[in-house]
């Protein structure tokens, strides 16, 4: 039902809703306002996996966290700075601007290509 309402919010009654949570992602096809339960796809890749990957990318950029709250900090960075590229080839070929993120200890982390 939530997927149908999400699609309605865009002004459409037919489409595919991609619902990605913390631990699982569902692709829900909807036709003329009705979800098609037999066609729903589940993938066990979701937000938590994106957070882990972002943590790896930030480490590759040369920053190491020194706190047990590392995962929560990276999750916050993901939610505030990251986005889905509409043209990945263009994003990968160009220079991505760095955005500053102020860590809980007051230090500043510059996040660029990892976003």
Write down the Rg. Answer: 18 Å
Under CATH, the topology of the largest domain can be stated as: Actin, Chain A, domain 4
By CATH, the architecture of the largest domain is named Alpha-Beta Complex
Q: Which CATH C-level class of the largest domain is it? A: Alpha Beta
Largest sheet properties = 4 strands, antiparallel
Structural class: alpha+beta
Show unreliable segments. Answer: none
What's the mean pLDDT score?
Answer: 91
Q: Classify the helix fraction into a percent range.
A: 25-40%
The end-to-end span amounts to 32 Å
**Count of strand segments:** 6
* Shape estimate: elongated
**Strand/helix succession:** HEEEEHHHEE
CATH superfamily of the largest domain: ATPase, substrate binding domain, subdomain 4
Q: Specify the number of helices.
A: 4
Beta-strand portion reads 15-25%
Overall domain count: 2
Q: What does this entry look like structurally?
A:
The chain has helices spanning 2-8, 47-60, 70-81, 88-93, and strands spanning 15-20, 25-31, 34-35, 41-43, 99-102, 108-111. The chain is of the alpha+beta class and 115 residues long. The strands form two sheets. Strands 1, 2, 3 and 4 form a four-stranded antiparallel sheet that branches. The protein has a two-stranded antiparallel ribbon with strand order 5-6. The model has no long low-confidence stretch (mean pLDDT 91). The protein has two domains: 2-43, Nucleotidyltransferase, domain 5 (2-Layer Sandwich), CATH 3.30.420.40; 47-111, ATPase, substrate binding domain, subdomain 4 (Actin, Chain A, domain 4, Alpha-Beta Complex), CATH 3.90.640. The protein has four helices and six strands; from the N terminus they run H-E-E-E-E-H-H-H-E-E. The radius of gyration is 18 Å and the shape is elongated. Belongs to the actin family. ARP1 subfamily. GO terms for molecular function: ATP binding. This is Actin-like protein 87C. It comes from Bactrocera latifrons. It is found in: Cytoplasm, Cytoskeleton.
